[in-house]
Design goal:
Blueprint lengths: L9 E4 L3 E4 L9 E2 L1 H10 L4 E8 L2 E9 L14 E3 L5 H13 L9 H4 L15 H5 L8 H12 L6 H14 L13 H15 L3 H10 L8 E2 L15 E4 L4 E4 L5 H15 L1 E4 H10 L14 H4 L14 E2 L4 E5 L4 E10 L2 E8 L4 E7 L5 H18 L14 E6 L3 E6 L5 E7 L7 E2 L6 E2 L4 E6 L7 E5 L2
Parallel strand pairs: 3-5
Antiparallel strand pairs: 1-2, 4-5, 4-15, 6-10, 7-10, 8-9, 11-12, 12-13, 13-14, 14-15, 16-17, 17-21, 18-19, 18-20, 18-22
Length: 469
C-alpha cells in the first residue's frame, strides 16, 4: 500500500452574442507504462492498466501488455475493463439517489416492500436496505447459493428482473447463513438490494444504473456485461486464468448467452459494469466530494456512502460500508475507501482518499491469484508513493462543454463541470482585446455536475471563454 486542446466553437445568437467556449491547454500527465511493463512481466500478467487522479486531474496513467495472450494487440489505457464487485458502490449510489427522492429509506425493511414476506424465513422480516448494502443482512454467500440453487435456477425463465426476483425470494426463504447484523460478504444480498430498488422505483436495475449513474455522471462508455467476446483480434482486453505452477495463461471465452442471462440476474447488481478507467474515475471522483448538489440534494446522503456500517465510527475505523470498504491509512491520517472486483477472468481495484482527493485505479486481464494480487499491490504502491502529493497539473478527467446558453434580458451560461474544480468565465467584446475574468480571478468552484454563470451586462457582440486555472 502507498507509503509501508483547447477546443473552441462559436454560436451566433441573432448578432446579440457570440459565444466562445474553451479550456486551458492540458498539461501532460506522467506515462507510467514502462513501470507497468516491469510489474506485468514480474507478475506474469497478460496486460495491466492504471490511472492516478488528484483533484480531478489525471496525474499519471499507463498500460502494458496485451489484450489477449498470443496476440500482439496492445492493452490500452482507454480500453474497457470489467470491474466486478466494484459495481457495488454504484448500486449503493443508486440507493442513495432513491433515498434522496424519498422512494426508499436506508431503514426500509424486507417486510416493507416484499408483499410475499410471510413466506420468507422470519429472521429476514426486519432486515433493512442498509444492512444488505453493508453485507449485514445474513443472506448466504455466493458459493452457498450456487451449491444449493444454481442447477434449479438455470431452469428458470423470464426477464432479468424476474430471474433476479426468483433469486431474492429463494435466498430469503432459506435460513440466514449468519445472524442478521453479522458480517458476511454476499453477492446475492445485492440481488435482494436490486429487487428492493426495483419495487420502490418501478424500474429495473439495468435501467436504474443507466439513469442514476452512467448518464448523469457522463460515463459515456460504461455498459453492462463482458467487455470481450471471442473475436480475433480482440476488441477489448480478454480475461485469462493463470496456472501458477507453469505460468501458462489461458484466455477465457465469452459466456454462453443463457448462462450470462442468469448470472446477470444473480450477480449483476453486485458486479457487472464494464468501462474504461477514465469513466470509472469520473464516478469515484464524484465520491471524492462531500457535496454534489445537483446529483444528491440531501447533504447527508453522499457522506453516508463513505462511512462504515456503524456510521458513528470515525477516523481509525476499519469496516465494510455501503458498497465500499473503509480502512484507516496511517500515512494519510484518514480513512481510505477501496474495493476490488474479480469477474470474467479480470481483476481490478480502486482506492480513494477523500481529504486529499486522490484516487488510483488498476485493472489486469487475469483472474485472481496471488500473482494478480501482487501485480495490483505493486501498482498501488507505484502510484501512491509517487503521486499522492503530486500537483494536480495533468489533464482533467473531463473538459468543460456547453450545456446551454439562454439569452433574454441576461445571458445564462450553463456548462458541465467536475465537482470541486474551479472554472473561470472570461468575457470580451473584441477577440483582439483583453479578456476579463467575469466570475473572479480564481473562478467559481463547481459544487455539482453542472454550473451556471449569469451575465447581466448586455453587449451587441460578446465573447465568452471558459478555462480552468
Amino acid at each position: 500500500m502507498p507509503l509501508s486542446a483547447r477546443k473552441r466553437f462559436l454560436v451566433n445568437l441573432a448578432a446579440i452574442f457570440l459565444f466562445l467556449l474553451g479550456h486551458s491547454a492540458a498539461r501532460g500527465q506522467v506515462d507510467v507504462s514502462a513501470s507497468l511493463e516491469t510489474i506485468r512481466t514480474n507478475r506474469h500478467m497478460p496486460g495491466i492498466a492504471a490511472m492516478a487522479v488528484r483533484q480531478g486531474h489525471i496525474v499519471a496513467q499507463g498500460a502494458a501488455g496485451y489484450r489477449r495472450q498470443g496476440t500482439n494487440t496492445p492493452f490500452l489505457v482507454t480500453d474497457p475493463v470489467n470491474i466486478g464487485s466494484c459495481t457495488k458502490w454504484m448500486t449503493a449510489t443508486i440507493a442513495g439517489r432513491l433515498v434522496d427522492r424519498g422512494l426508499i429509506d436506508w431503514n426500509t425493511r424486507i417486510c416493507d416492500l416484499f408483499t410475499n414476506y410471510p413466506a420468507f424465513n422470519p429472521a429476514f422480516t426486519n432486515v433493512t436496505l442498509d444492512q444488505l448494502l453493508c453485507h449485514r443482512g445474513g443472506v448466504q454467500e455466493e458459493n452457498t447459493f450456487d451449491a444449493n440453487h444454481w442447477s434449479t435456477f438455470m431452469t428458470q425463465n423470464g426477464s432479468v428482473s424476474q430471474l433476479r426476483r426468483w433469486v431474492s425470494d429463494t435466498v430469503l426463504k432459506d435460513a440466514p447463513q449468519v445472524p442478521p447484523g453479522q458480517y458476511l460478504y454476499a453477492n446475492q444480498g445485492y440481488a435482494v438490494v436490486a429487487t428492493m430498488l426495483e419495487i420502490a422505483s418501478g424500474t429495473d436495475w439495468e435501467t436504474l444504473i443507466q439513469q442514476e449513474v452512467f448518464t448523469p455522471v457522463r460515463m459515456s462508455s460504461a455498459a453492462l456485461g463482458q467487455v470481450f467476446d471471442n473475436t480475433l483480434p480482440p476488441k477489448a482486453p480478454v480475461g485469462h486464468d493463470l496456472n501458477t505452477n507453469t505460468f501458462v495463461l489461458t484466455p477465457r471465452l465469452k459466456l454462453p448467452s443463457n448462462y450470462e442471462w442468469h448470472y446477470r440476474a444473480s450477480c449483476g447488481a453486485a458486479g457487472y459494469a464494464g468501462l474504461p478507467l477514465k469513466d470509472w474515475a469520473k464516478f469515484i471522483h464524484l465520491h471524492a466530494n462531500t457535496v454534489v448538489s445537483d446529483y444528491l440534494t440531501n447533504t447527508a446522503v453522499l457522506p453516508r456512502l463513505h462511512l462504515p456500517y456503524d456510521i458513528h465510527q470515525t477516523i481509525g475505523s476499519n469496516d465494510m460500508g455501503r458498497g465500499v470498504s473503509i480502512l484507516y491509512w496511517s500515512f494519510a491520517g484518514e480513512n481510505g475507501l477501496y474495493h476490488g472486483g474479480d469477474i470474467f477472468g479480470q481483476d481490478s481495484e480502486f482506492y480513494l482518499w477523500p481529504t486529499n482527493r486522490f484516487l488510483v485505479l488498476v485493472a489486469v486481464n487475469c483472474g485472481i491469484t496471488t500473482y494478480t494480487s501482487a501485480a495490483i499491490t505493486d501498482t498501488i504502491n507505484l502510484l501512491g508513493n509517487n503521486y499522492f502529493y503530486a500537483s494536480p497539473t495533468g489533464p482533467l478527467l473531463e473538459n468543460p462543454a456547453i450545456v446551454s446558453l439562454v439569452v433574454h434580458d441576461q445571458a445564462v451560461l450553463n456548462y458541465q463541470t467536475l465537482p470541486g474544480i474551479s472554472y473561470v468565465v472570461e468575457t470580451s467584446t473584441n477577440l483582439a482585446g483583453a479578456w476579463t475574468a467575469a466570475n473572479g480571478t480564481n473562478g467559481q468552484n463547481a459544487s455539482g455536475l453542472q454550473s451556471s454563470y449569469v451575465d447581466t451586462n448586455r453587449a451587441a457582440v460578446k465573447f465568452y471563454k471558459l478555462s480552468v486555472p
